[in-house]
Amino acid sequence: MVLTCRVRIGNPKQTIGAPGRSRREVVRGVALVALVGATGPLTGCGLFGDEPDPPPPDPLAPLITGALDLAARYDAAITAFPELADRLRPVAEAHRAHAAELARVTGTALPSASAAATTPAADPGAGSASAALSQLREAEQQGREAAAKACTEAPASRSALVGSIAAARATHLEVLR
Amino acid sequence: MSEALAAALSAEHAAIYAYGPIGVRLKGAAAEQARSAEAAHRSRRDALVLLLTERGGPVPGAEPAYALPFPVTDEAGALRLAVEVEERTAGVWRAALPATEGADRTRALDGLTDAAVRATRWRKAAGISPTTVPFPGRPA
Hints:
The complex is a heterodimer of chains A (177) and B (140). Chain A has helices at residues 2-10, 23-44, 61-80, 85-106, 113-117, 129-153, 156-175. Chain A has 2 domains: 2-48, no CATH class; 61-175, Ferritin (Up-down Bundle), CATH 1.20.1260. The N and C termini of chain A lie far apart (51 Å). In chain A, α1 (2-10) runs antiparallel to α2, α3 (61-80) runs antiparallel to α4 and α6 (129-153) runs antiparallel to α7. Chain A is an all-alpha fold and 177 residues long. In chain B, α1 runs antiparallel to α2. The longest helix of chain B has 28 residues, at 28-55. Chain B has helices at 2-24, 28-55, 75-96, 102-126. Chain B: InterPro entries: DUF4439, Ferritin-like, Ferritin-like_SF. Chain B: It holds the Pfam family DUF4439. Chain B: Residues 4-139 form the DUF4439 domain. Chain B: This is DUF4439 domain-containing protein.
C-alpha cells in the first residue's frame, strides 16, 4: 500500500495543474498519501506479529550512495578519457567493493546499477583529462573526509571497515596525483 | 584501549627497524622516500611512548632485532619489504580501531591511513599494479 502510494507520487506523468484536477485536489491527495504512509506501518504490525516499526535510515547509508557516486564518476572519466582506464579502473572497482561491503554490513540492498548511473555527476567530457582528474580529486577528498568522520562515529563493530574505506580513499588521492 | 595502542607501538618499533635494511638498498628518490617514511614512523612511535607513559600502562620497547620476512639483498627486495612493512603496520592500526574511541580512534585511523598511503607510494615505486588495495589493513 505504501509502495503504491510512493509510486504514484513519483509518477512523472502526474503534473500539478493537470486538466480536470484543481491545485487543491492535488494538495489534498498528497496529504492523504502522507497520512496513509504514516499509518501504514502501524496497521501492518498485526501481519508480522510484534515487529517494530522500520528503523530509521542506517548512519552508513550516505557512505553507500557516496561510494556508488564516486564509482560512477570514475566510470564517466574512463569513458571520456580511455587513456586513464588502467589507472582509474581499480579505483572505480574499489568504490563498488566498498558499497557492496557496506550494504552487507548494514543489511540494505544496493540500488540497481542503472539507478546509480543516474547520479548527477560532473560531466568529465567537458574538459581535459587533467580537469577530469582534478574533479575526481575534489570528490575523493570529500569522500575521504566523510568516511573519516563516519569512522570516528561508528560503533566498534563497524569501525574497522569504515576506517579501511577512509584509508582507501586517501590512497586514491595518490593515484590521482 | 591501551593494549591496542601498545600493539601499534610495537609495530612502529618493528617498522623503524625494517627501514634500516630498506634504506641502504635504495638510491635517489626512493632513498629519500625511505628516510621520510622512517621519520614518520619515529614520530608516531615518540607520540605513542609519550601517550602510554602518561597513562601509566605498559610501554613496549623495541626489540634488539627483528626477523625480516625475507632477506633484502637488492633494490627490488627493499621495495618489496617496504610495501610489506607498511601493509603490516596498516593492519595493526586497523585492528586498534574497534578497541578505541574518540581521540584514540582518530589516532588509530591516522596511523592506518598514513601506512596505507605509504604502501601505495611504495607499490608505485616498485612498479606494482594496481598501486591500491580496496580495504587497506584488512587481513588477506
